[in-house]
């Protein structure tokens, strides 16, 4: 398992993975930035930098998150939320076929090991409020604003 630390506008990102794909991307308050990038993680680092530069809206590197079958199912559903869009926990549970599982879905969402790439930040409250985010609500707000910039100013 290889590990690299990169600088982002939201703190230091820790990326772990191997030849089977990236298994962890997490955010730290601070950390020492890696001087070299392992070959297995170069594509992930490049794509994350492009995302933060506003040049990438989806990721194509291999993912290999570890979790239960249910967590994997939730994370797969999260991957289907388009860039610049949001969904509610209720809508997500409906999509998964069991509205009674809202707490379990929220728990799986909170255990997402692939920060940004599996876009748990795109899940909001049914009333549009920003609810729970392991990285801090200020980061969730930043990510949503980054993905959905204000409408362009009128030319007139």
Helix/strand layout:
Blueprint: E1 2-8, E2 11-18, E3 21-28, H1 42-52, H2 69-79, E4 87-88, H3 89-96, H4 102-110, E5 123-124, H5 137-147
In short, what is this structure?
It catalyses: a 6-O-methyl-2'-deoxyguanosine in DNA + L-cysteinyl-[protein] = S-methyl-L-cysteinyl-[protein] + a 2'-deoxyguanosine in DNA; a 4-O-methyl-thymidine in DNA + L-cysteinyl-[protein] = a thymidine in DNA + S-methyl-L-cysteinyl-[protein]. This protein is of the alpha+beta class and 156 residues long.
Compute the separation of the termini in Å. 55 Å
Question: What is the CATH architecture descriptor of the largest domain?
Answer: Orthogonal Bundle
Secondary-structure-based class equals alpha+beta
Any low-confidence stretches, pLDDT <50, length ≥5? 151-156
**Morphology:** globular
**SSE topology string:** EEEHHEHHEH
Helix content: 25-40%
Counting structural domains, the number is 2
CATH topology of the largest domain: Arc Repressor Mutant, subunit A
Share in β-strands = 15-25%
**CATH class label of the largest domain:** Mainly Alpha
Largest sheet: 3 strands, antiparallel
Overall mean pLDDT stands at 92
Report what the structure shows.
The chain has five helices and five strands. It has 156 residues and is α+β, with helices and mostly antiparallel strands. It folds into two domains: 2-52, Double Stranded RNA Binding Domain (2-Layer Sandwich); 69-147, Arc Repressor Mutant, subunit A (Orthogonal Bundle). It has a three-stranded antiparallel sheet with strand order 1-2-3, covered by helices on one side. Strands 4-5 form a two-stranded parallel sheet. A hairpin with a 2-residue loop joins strand 2 (11-18) and strand 3 (21-28). It starts with a strand and ends in a 9-residue tail after the last helix.
């Amino acid at each position: 398992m290889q590990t690299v630390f990169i600088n982002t506008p939201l703190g230091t990102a820790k990326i772990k993975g191997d030849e089977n794909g990236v298994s962890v991307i997490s955010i730290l308050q601070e950390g020492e930035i890696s001087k070299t990038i392992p070959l297995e993680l170069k594509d992930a680092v490049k794509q994350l930098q492009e995302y933060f530069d506003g040049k990438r809206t989806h990721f194509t590197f291999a993912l290999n998150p570890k979790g239960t079958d249910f967590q994997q199912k939730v994370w797969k559903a999260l991957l289907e939320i388009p860039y610049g869009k949001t969904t509610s926990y209720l809508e997500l549970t409906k999509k998964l076929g069991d509205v009674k599982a809202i707490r379990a879905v929220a728990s799986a969402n909170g255990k997402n090991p692939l920060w940004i790439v599996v876009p748990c930040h795109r899940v909001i409250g049914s009333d549009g409020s920003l609810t729970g985010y392991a990285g801090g609500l200020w980061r969730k707000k930043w990510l949503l604003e980054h993905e959905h910039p204000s409408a362009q100013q009128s030319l007139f």
